[in-house]
Q: What sequence folds into this?
């Protein structure tokens, strides 16, 4: 069992920790606002944000399904004209790529500005859990639909989400369900469903995979409207053996049988704890969350409620012990610097270079996270990228328009009167950037730097100080 | 803008090991050895005692260069079965003219653009392995690349790369530069349990950059940055109870995230210094052609010549996915490959390093026997691998796959690519291939 955090321990630092993990961090003001609430209300506010995930403001090309069947037919008519077909295919390829860039930019924008950070953080979690890669799906509408499914159902009931994903076109394409034939069912989805999405290795047999694959035959995608449909003629309605049961199970039946296994809440709990708590969470936390999932019948909100209210969540072994994922690094840095996201070309290339190109996980296992984000190269990249976030392209007058960025507005984060008070300035910035104070050694180095730059207290010095502070190993932690 | 002070000099710490030694054994350390370094040092010693650890290359060990031909290289137009009627019938547009082929034997020869590779073959420095592939070939770029990078079976998914497993098994305690990939992303073959190796496209990007970066001299910021990443006694607001061991659920050999970050930052500085120094000192002794491949090979040659203790380099040549208009595109790629490798070999010979270097090429799949309707070819299966270097046993290995007995229209493999990896591991890198690849694969007499 998890024990609730005593109210007297509800500090600025703990409120910061909650925002860091349940969202993408916050400015000192935002943390303070959260801190003013009692811990229960703070967590409630994150779980039930005032603004429910709203529909897309303006319509985009990738929010509308298309009639892919007619597109394919038109393409087929070009068979006699290879040059024209090539041109059309190339144009389609480019359009798909541009739509994915736009979709990615849209999601990053949501993460940056949403008043419901936990919703977006859960969307990111499920995206890594039910990993699906755009390079195989090749359609931004389908990738967006999957993303919206995570957004709508991510904090609700896991069983509902699982069922939705089993019929999600992007997932069906990624794991080859959409072509699975009764005569020779495709086992890719059946295998990853149990191995990666629900149970983990050791809790099912190869026969279970083969038998359950039969239950997902007949799942198809209607190409005229890009929606899921059933193909009854392709469905194997025969008797199946699965996890010790027998019946003419449908795909939904298989899902029901899976979540009944004790291994399922354990598996989901472990994934949640690795994402929200620690790279190697203690067995007692994992057990407690698994129990909670079971008791709550897989409702995610009450499980997270208990976790985010618990003393264990705020322990020394958890707070500031998680390496920021590339997405966290990008979004949190922009929040802390009170600045906009970089132009899409930069932001998305940066995510690629840092190893977390959203919508394109390296494989169906998603992203490992933790220390795997950090290498000598990626550390240099993060440090140098921080410089770009702070300084923009001010020093590069020839920067192409698509890459230009204005420097951070220092007035927002550095009160004028502190520029001449190095000690207080550093403490003030540390509170913002680290949500705690640096150790003595580091403080001395920051002071020495300001000393070296004295008497210059201008914008350039301030920006360089910010850069130094954001280039510490500590800044990589959240 | 204030100029950097005269007393500023930056220490070049050659290897982490030497650094640790001087701190523990040597002179007045102005700070006590911090917890994480101490543990790392002793852990390294312990590991060295009873494992497969290899000492870093030093200046004389063998070096492996892996060259990826990305996109699916058309092996049939690289090693051409000119004497086979089926080849000419299947490729009315793309079949290369028989009289231009650089003959290797009475059946097959090299693409006309590969003149230098032909010379290398004649001089005895090139092994060509025909019909390389694996059971149940996959024709998807990303899945097939993953298979080649992880050396997995077609129905398994591995996260770690074959070189990553080599680093984990055999190079613990080595410099972070034990593996160097030229490019912008770490190749999956380098993925290891302990993140190892560096990726860079340009040496000047592999360093802490500040707004007023002007040339190789360290800026003020960099000087302070280095001080910040020096190990200190405590990290920010260190949790009570310390880090290692006190954390439930973590193993003792795991560094805490904060310590891990600190160590990586230190590694980054050390390797960055080395690379920048090498870049400054070392100049190419032969002219290289233009282009990204030649640049990559040039950079690798600089690092070899400059004495970097790297064991494995990785470079990539893109553009092989020739679904349309293949004739020109593929010939350009062959020219680029030929000319780039020619310069690289000449450079290494002048350095006196040619005997130490073995370069192997691979592609995620070959291409189909029949050309398509767009003057190109589609994804295929088996294809040749090239292995070249001063220590190579030359010749044609494997069998040229039959052009009529096909697997769904594609060439059938007769040499599993893991045999090539295994041979390189056992005979060139002197690493136990069975530990790295998971099982034994029959060797090839190419080294």
A:
């Amino acid at each position: 069992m998890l024990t609730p955090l005593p109210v007297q321990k509800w500090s600025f630092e703990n409120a910061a920790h909650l925002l860091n993990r349940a969202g993408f961090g916050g400015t000192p003001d935002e943390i303070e606002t959260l801190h003013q609430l009692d811990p229960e209300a703070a967590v409630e506010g994150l779980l039930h944000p005032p603004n429910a995930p709203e529909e897309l403001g303006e319509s985009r090309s990738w929010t509308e399904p298309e009639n892919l069947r007619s597109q394919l037919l038109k393409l087929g008519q070009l068979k006699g004209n290879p040059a024209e077909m090539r041109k059309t295919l190339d144009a389609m390829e480019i359009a798909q790529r541009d739509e994915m860039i736009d979709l990615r930019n849209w999601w990053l924008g949501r993460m940056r500005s949403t008043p419901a950070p936990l919703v977006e953080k859960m969307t990111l979690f499920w995206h890594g859990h039910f990993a699906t890669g755009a390079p195989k799906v090749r359609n931004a509408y389908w990738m967006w639909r999957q993303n919206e499914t995570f957004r709508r159902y991510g904090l609700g009931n896991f069983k509902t989400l699982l069922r939705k994903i089993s019929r999600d076109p992007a997932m069906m394409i990624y794991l080859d369900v959409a072509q699975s034939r009764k005569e020779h069912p495709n086992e890719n989805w059946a295998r990853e469903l149990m191995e990666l999405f629900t149970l983990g290795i050791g809790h099912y047999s190869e026969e279970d995979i083969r038998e359950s694959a039969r239950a997902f035959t007949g799942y198809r995608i209607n190409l005229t409207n890009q929606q899921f449909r059933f193909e009854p003629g392709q469905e194997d309605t025969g008797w199946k053996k699965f996890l010790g049961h027998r019946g003419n199970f449908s795909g939904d039946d298989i899902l029901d049988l899976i979540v009944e296994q004790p291994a399922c809440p354990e598996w989901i709990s472990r994934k949640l704890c690795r994402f929200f708590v620690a790279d190697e969470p203690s067995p007692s936390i994992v057990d407690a969350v698994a129990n909670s999932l079971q008791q709550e019948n897989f409702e995610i909100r009450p499980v997270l409620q208990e976790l985010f209210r618990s003393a264990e969540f705020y322990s020394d072994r958890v707070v500031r012990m998680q390496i920021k994922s590339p997405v966290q690094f990008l979004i949190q840095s922009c929040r802390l610097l009170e600045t906009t996201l970089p132009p899409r070309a930069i932001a998305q290339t940066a995510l690629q270079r840092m190893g977390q190109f959203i919508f394109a996980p390296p494989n169906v296992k998603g992203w490992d996270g933790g220390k795997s984000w950090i290498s000598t190269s990626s550390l240099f990249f993060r440090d140098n990228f921080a410089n770009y976030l702070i300084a923009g392209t001010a020093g590069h007058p020839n920067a192409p328009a698509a890459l230009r960025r204005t420097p951070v507005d220092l007035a927002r984060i550095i009160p004028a009167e502190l520029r001449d008070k190095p000690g207080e300035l550093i403490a003030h910035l540390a509170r913002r950037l680290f949500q705690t104070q640096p150790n003595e050694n580091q403080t001395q180095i920051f002071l020495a730097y300001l000393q070296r730059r004295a008497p210059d207290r201008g914008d350039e010095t301030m920006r360089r100080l910010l850069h130094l502070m954001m280039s510490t190993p500590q800044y990589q932690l959240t | 803008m204030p100029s950097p002070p005269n007393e500023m000099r930056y220490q070049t710490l050659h290897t982490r090991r030497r650094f640790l030694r001087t701190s523990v054994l040597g002179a007045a350390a102005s700070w006590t050895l911090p917890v994480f370094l101490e543990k790392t040092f002793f852990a390294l010693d312990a590991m060295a005692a009873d494992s497969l650890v290899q000492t870093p290359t030093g200046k004389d060990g063998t070096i492996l260069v892996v060259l990826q031909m990305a996109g699916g290289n058309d092996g049939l137009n690289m090693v051409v079965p000119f004497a086979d009627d089926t080849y000419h019938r299947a490729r009315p547009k793309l079949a290369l003219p028989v009289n231009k082929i650089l003959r290797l034997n009475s059946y097959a020869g090299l693409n006309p653009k590969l003149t230098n590779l032909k010379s290398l073959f004649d001089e005895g420095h090139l092994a060509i392995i025909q019909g390389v592939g694996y059971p149940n070939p996959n024709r998807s770029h990303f899945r097939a690349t993953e298979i080649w990078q992880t050396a997995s079976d077609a129905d398994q998914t591995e996260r770690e790369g074959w070189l990553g497993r080599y680093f984990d098994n055999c190079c613990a305690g080595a410099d972070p530069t034990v593996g160097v990939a030229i490019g912008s992303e770490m190749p999956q073959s380098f993925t290891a349990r302990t993140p190892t190796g560096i990726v860079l496209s340009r040496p000047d990007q592999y360093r802490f950059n500040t707004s007023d970066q002007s040339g190789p001299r360290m800026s003020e910021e960099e000087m302070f940055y280095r001080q910040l990443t020096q190990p200190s006694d405590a990290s920010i607001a260190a949790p009570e109870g310390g880090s290692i061991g006190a954390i439930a659920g973590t193993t003792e050999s795991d560094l805490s995230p904060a310590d891990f970050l600190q160590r990586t930052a230190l590694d980054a500085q050390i390797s960055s210094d080395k690379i920048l120094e090498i870049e400054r000192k070392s100049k190419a002794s032969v002219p290289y052609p233009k282009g990204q491949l030649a640049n990559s090979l040039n950079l690798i040659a600089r690092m070899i010549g400059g004495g970097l203790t790297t064991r494995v380099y990785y470079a990539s040549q893109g553009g092989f996915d020739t679904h349309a208009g293949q004739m020109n595109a593929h010939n350009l790629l062959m020219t680029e490959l030929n000319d780039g490798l020619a310069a690289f070999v000449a450079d290494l010979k002048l350095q006196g390093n040619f005997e130490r270097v073995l370069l192997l090429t691979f592609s995620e799949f070959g291409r189909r026997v029949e050309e398509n309707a767009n003057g190109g070819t589609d994804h295929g299966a088996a294809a040749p691998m090239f292995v070249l270097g001063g220590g190579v046993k030359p010749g044609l290995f494997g069998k040229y796959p039959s052009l009529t007995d096909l697997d769904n229209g594609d060439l059938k493999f007769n040499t599993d690519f893991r045999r090539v990896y295994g041979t390189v591991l056992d005979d060139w890198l002197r690493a136990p291939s069975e530990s790295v690849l998971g099982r034994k694969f029959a060797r090839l007499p190419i080294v």
Summary: The radius of gyration of chain B is 24 Å. Chain B touches chain A through 65 residues (CB under 8 Å). The longest helix of chain B spans residues 326-351.
